[in-house]
C-alpha cells in the first residue's frame, strides 16, 4: 500500500499529516508514504526529519476569501496538478489524504483525475477552501469538531504526536518541572503564543507576572524565537518565572503546567484537550475567526476560558486566571472536562478511514 499525504505549508497542516504517517507505519511497517510539499513550506525540513519521502510541487497560494485573484487559480493550478499526478503515478498511490493548505487542492484534483480514493481531514472548526472542494469528491471526511457542517463529516479529532497522545501529565510532572527549573509543588502557568501572535501575550504576561508570583504562582513562558526574552526584576524568594525562546518538548511543558494561556489554533486546542490541560484561550484576531470556533466546544464543556484579544489585560489575568490556579478543586474539574472532550486516538481512527476508502474503491 502507498499513501500520498497532502498537508504542507504550516505546522497545523503538517503535524497531523505526520502523525497519520506514523500511525500508518505502526499498523503496517511496509506501507509507502509520500508527503506533498512546496519549496517554501516547513515540510522541507519537517518531513525528511521524520524519515518520510517528500514530493515537491509548485506552490499555488489560495485566497482565503472570494477575490478577483480566485479567477486566476485554475490556470495557475494546471502545472501543479500535473506534477501531483506524476507523483501519484510514480508511487502507484492507493489513496490521497489531504489536510488543507497549498498542496491539498492539487492533491484532490490530481487524485480525482487518476481515480484514486480521497480522504479529507479538516482540523479547523471553519473549513478552508481546499477542503471544502475536496469534500465534494469523497464521502470520507474527518473533522475535529463534533458540530461540523462539512458534507459527509465524521468526528474523529486531530491526529497527534505520540508524545502528546500518550502523555500522562501526573506521572511525569516532577521530572518535567525539574527539567525547566520549576518548583515541584507550586501551581504553574504555561504561556505560549505559538509561531504567530506571541508578542501580545508576552506583553500582557510580563505585566501580570509580579501579581502571579505574589500569589504563589510560577510561570513557564515560551516567548517565541523571534521575540526578546523579558527582563523582569524578580524579588528573592518569589516563585520562579522561567522565560524561554522556544520549547522543543511541549509534552514536558504540558506535564509541568496546571493551566495554559495561549492562542486557539486547532492543534493547540486538540493537544490541550487530549492531555487534560485547562487553558485560557485568546483567539488570534486575524483570519476568518476560526480560532474562536476551535476553542468554543472545549470551553463550553468546561475545560477552558475564552477571552478576546482586545480584552486581554494583566487585570483580566489577575481576575480570571489566578482564581483558577489557586483553586485545586476548580483546576481538577476543568482538567477533567478538557480530557473528556479531548481525543487521543484520532490517528488510529484516521488510519481506519484510509483503509475504508481504499477498500470501497477496490470493492
UniProtKB/TrEMBL annotation:
Cellular location(s): Cell membrane
Pfam families: Glyco_tran_28_C, Glyco_transf_28
Molecular function as annotated in GO: UDP-N-acetyl-D-glucosamine:N-acetylmuramoyl-L-alanyl-D-glutamyl-meso-2,6-diaminopimelyl-D-alanyl-D-alanine-diphosphoundecaprenol 4-beta-N-acetylglucosaminlytransferase activity; undecaprenyldiphospho-muramoylpentapeptide beta-N-acetylglucosaminyltransferase activity
CC terms in the record's Gene Ontology section: plasma membrane
Binding positions (UDP-N-acetyl-alpha-D-glucosamine): 10-12, 124, 161, 195, 291
Enzyme class per UniProt: transferase
EC number(s) given by UniProt: 2.4.1.227
Membrane topology note: Peripheral membrane protein
CDD domains per record: GT28_MurG
Keyword field contains Disulfide bond: no
Gene3D superfamilies for the chain: Glycogen Phosphorylase B
Residue ranges annotated for the Glycosyltransferase family 28 N-terminal domain, each copy included: 3-141
Keywords from the named record: Cell cycle, Cell division, Cell membrane, Cell shape, Cell wall biogenesis/degradation, Glycosyltransferase, Membrane, Peptidoglycan synthesis, Transferase
SUPFAM superfamilies linked: UDP-Glycosyltransferase/glycogen phosphorylase
Residue ranges annotated for the Glycosyl transferase family 28 C-terminal domain, each copy included: 188-348
GO BP term (any one): cell division
Function: Cell wall formation. Catalyzes the transfer of a GlcNAc subunit on undecaprenyl-pyrophosphoryl-MurNAc-pentapeptide (lipid intermediate I) to form undecaprenyl-pyrophosphoryl-MurNAc-(pentapeptide)GlcNAc (lipid intermediate II).
Family: Belongs to the glycosyltransferase 28 family. MurG subfamily.
Protein name (record): UDP-N-acetylglucosamine--N-acetylmuramyl-(pentapeptide) pyrophosphoryl-undecaprenol N-acetylglucosamine transferase
Lineage: Bacteria, Bacillati, Actinomycetota, Actinomycetes, Kitasatosporales
Gene: murG
Amino acid at each position: 500500500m502507498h499513501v500520498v499525504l497532502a498537508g504542507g505549508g504550516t505546522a497545523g497542516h503538517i503535524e497531523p499529516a505526520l502523525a497519520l504517517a506514523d500511525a500508518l507505519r505502526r499498523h503496517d511497517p511496509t506501507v509507502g508514504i509520500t508527503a506533498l510539499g512546496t519549496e517554501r513550506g516547513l515540510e522541507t525540513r519537517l518531513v525528511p526529519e521524520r524519515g518520510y519521502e517528500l514530493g515537491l510541487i509548485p506552490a499555488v497560494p489560495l485566497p482565503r476569501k472570494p477575490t478577483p485573484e480566485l479567477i486566476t487559480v485554475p490556470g495557475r493550478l494546471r502545472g501543479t496538478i500535473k506534477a501531483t499526478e506524476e507523483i501519484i503515478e510514480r508511487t502507484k498511490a492507493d489513496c490521497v489524504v489531504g489536510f488543507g493548505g497549498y498542496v491539498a487542492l492539487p492533491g484532490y484534483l490530481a487524485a480525482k483525475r487518476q481515480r484514486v480514493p480521497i480522504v479529507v481531514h479538516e482540523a479547523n472548526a471553519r473549513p478552508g477552501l481546499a477542503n471544502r472542494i475536496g469534500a465534494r469528491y469523497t464521502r470520507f471526511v474527518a473533522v475535529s469538531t463534533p458540530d461540523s457542517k462539512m458534507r459527509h463529516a465524521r468526528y474523529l479529532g486531530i491526529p497527534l504526536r505520540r508524545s502528546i497522545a500518550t502523555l500522562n501529565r501526573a506521572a511525569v510532572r516532577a521530572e518535567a518541572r525539574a527539567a525547566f527549573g520549576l518548583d515541584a509543588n507550586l501551581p504553574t502557568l504555561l504561556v505560549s503564543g505559538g509561531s504567530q501572535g506571541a508578542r501580545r501575550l508576552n506583553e500582557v504576561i510580563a505585566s501580570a507576572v509580579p501579581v502571579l508570583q505574589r500569589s504563589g504562582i510560577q510561570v513557564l513562558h515560551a516567548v517565541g524565537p523571534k521575540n526578546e526574552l523579558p527582563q523582569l526584576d524578580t524579588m528573592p524568594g518569589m516563585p520562579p518565572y522561567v522565560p524561554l525562546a522556544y520549547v522543543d518538548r511541549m509534552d514536558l511543558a504540558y506535564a509541568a503546567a496546571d493551566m495554559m494561556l495561549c492562542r486557539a489554533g486547532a492543534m493547540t486546542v486538540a493537544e490541550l484537550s487530549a492531555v487534560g490541560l485547562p487553558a485560557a484561550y485568546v483567539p488570534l484576531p486575524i483570519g476568518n475567526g476560526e480560532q474562536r470556533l476551535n476553542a468554543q466546544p472545549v470551553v463550553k464543556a468546561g475545560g477552558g476560558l475564552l477571552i478576546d484579544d482586545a480584552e486581554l489585560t494583566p487585570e483580566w489575568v489577575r481576575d480570571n486566571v489566578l482564581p483558577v490556579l489557586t483553586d485545586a478543586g476548580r483546576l481538577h474539574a476543568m482538567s477533567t472536562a478538557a480530557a473528556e472532550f479531548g481525543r487521543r486516538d484520532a490517528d488510529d481512527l484516521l488510519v481506519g478511514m484510509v483503509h475504508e476508502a481504499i477498500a470501497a474503491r477496490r470493492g
